[in-house]
Amino acid sequence: MTIQWFPGHMTRAKRQIQEKLKLIDIAIELLDARVPLSSRNPMVEEILSGKPRLIVLNKSDLADPRTTEQWMAYFANEGHECVSVDSSTGTRVGDIPVKAKQILHEKIARQIAKGMNPRAVRGLIVGIPNVGKSTLINRLAGRNIALTGDRPGVTKGQQWIKVGGDMELLDTPGILWPKFEDELVGYRLAMTGAIREQILNVDDIAFFAVRELVDRYWPTLQERYELETPPTDSADSDEIVRVMEDIGRRRGCLISGGRVDLEKTSGIILRDLRAGKLGRITLEAPPY
């Protein structure tokens, strides 16, 4: 499977970012802590042209904390400063301006040595759709200044936003890349809500999600839906469908003849996953 698109607004967003780079001191790359690699746009390296960077793992409240620590070590090994935050509650969001100034300390020191009064750090937030940019900006700004929503692509333009007296942020629309060569990336982004469900069938997304959860978090899945019999082979499609049907029966998703409505069941599974009702789950580990 190869998912391909490059909507016009994403082309414009890429161009807007490149035009503003000369005004930026540091780029803040926002990733989903549940899928850090899949939510990392490979075009960012080209777009940012070597600008200093701070990686922020957002939605850490929904991610497995042990795996988040592994990801932070992974990015540190790449030479990037990294912080994990929960923009919905504001947990550790205040670390972002502090880390940004630490990354730019040499530049700030040179300005002071020249007798200059350092201005506020100018940062650019970049990330794929629905990774939580607007929620994070509102937390940093202390007010609802950026549009938010639970669907991909809510941010429509770009705007400068003051964060106290030490930072100014440039919000930008989310940018997806032209195509996914790896179907796992597409499915993982669909599971977390970064891709509109019209692109992939909801049953297929839920099937992939259940297979991943069976492999990684069976006890959590079992407890949430009061399941009794684990699958004998998670690679067996019939076994995964059986688990989905068990979930559907537990949730009353039945249609005529006592059959399970898999579409309704799939919707329940995905909503529970995205809302954190299945616990703190990370869907990929660092590629050591």
Automatic annotation (TrEMBL):
<keyword id="KW-0963">Cytoplasm</keyword>
<dbReference type="GO" id="GO:0003924">
    <property type="term" value="F:GTPase activity"/>
</dbReference>
<feature type="domain" description="CP-type G">
    <location>
        <begin position="14"/>
        <end position="178"/>
    </location>
</feature>
<keyword id="KW-0690">Ribosome biogenesis</keyword>
<dbReference type="InterPro" id="IPR016478">
    <property type="entry name" value="GTPase_MTG1"/>
</dbReference>
<dbReference type="InterPro" id="IPR019991">
    <property type="entry name" value="GTP-bd_ribosome_bgen"/>
</dbReference>
<keyword id="KW-0694">RNA-binding</keyword>
<dbReference type="InterPro" id="IPR027417">
    <property type="entry name" value="P-loop_NTPase"/>
</dbReference>
<dbReference type="InterPro" id="IPR006073">
    <property type="entry name" value="GTP-bd"/>
</dbReference>
<protein>
    <recommendedName>
        <fullName>Ribosome biogenesis GTPase A</fullName>
    </recommendedName>
</protein>
<feature type="binding site">
    <location>
        <begin position="58"/>
        <end position="61"/>
    </location>
    <ligand>
        <name>GTP</name>
    </ligand>
</feature>
<keyword id="KW-0547">Nucleotide-binding</keyword>
<feature type="binding site">
    <location>
        <position position="174"/>
    </location>
    <ligand>
        <name>GTP</name>
    </ligand>
</feature>
<comment type="function">
    <text>Required for a late step of 50S ribosomal subunit assembly. Has GTPase activity.</text>
</comment>
<dbReference type="Pfam" id="PF01926">
    <property type="entry name" value="MMR_HSR1"/>
</dbReference>
<dbReference type="GO" id="GO:0003723">
    <property type="term" value="F:RNA binding"/>
</dbReference>
<dbReference type="GO" id="GO:0006412">
    <property type="term" value="P:translation"/>
</dbReference>
<dbReference type="GO" id="GO:0005737">
    <property type="term" value="C:cytoplasm"/>
</dbReference>
<dbReference type="InterPro" id="IPR023179">
    <property type="entry name" value="GTP-bd_ortho_bundle_sf"/>
</dbReference>
<keyword id="KW-0378">Hydrolase</keyword>
<dbReference type="InterPro" id="IPR030378">
    <property type="entry name" value="G_CP_dom"/>
</dbReference>
<keyword id="KW-0342">GTP-binding</keyword>
<comment type="similarity">
    <text>Belongs to the TRAFAC class YlqF/YawG GTPase family. MTG1 subfamily.</text>
</comment>
<dbReference type="GO" id="GO:0042254">
    <property type="term" value="P:ribosome biogenesis"/>
</dbReference>
<dbReference type="GO" id="GO:0005525">
    <property type="term" value="F:GTP binding"/>
</dbReference>
<feature type="binding site">
    <location>
        <begin position="130"/>
        <end position="135"/>
    </location>
    <ligand>
        <name>GTP</name>
    </ligand>
</feature>
